Amino acid sequence: MAVLARYGAMNANSVVDRTAMDKVRVSRAVARLTAAGHITRRVDPADHRRAILDLTPQGVTTYQQIVPGLRAVQDEILATLDVGERNALETMLVKLEQRSTAVAQVRAADDITG
Q: Which domain holds residue 24?
């Protein structure tokens, strides 16, 4: 839900690309969130083999209800760090995310080429 709330409607492969979740976990999450009425699936007009995922109004509401609590917990955890340490942590996390994305792309390309 968070990825769809942040980036808007997209296919499941795009969700995989933007998270640390593998395809199976994304597929299971999509099934649960669809069953719960939080997201919709519609055929991608550009590629009928794919589905576009999007938040429903209920999904948006649920997301908006959850986020303040999550941010409060995050703030409580990060309160032990001073501003410089928080900035350093953010820099390191961005670097790790970028590297993990690059590694995943190389591995996906290797899987395709054999």
A: 1-67
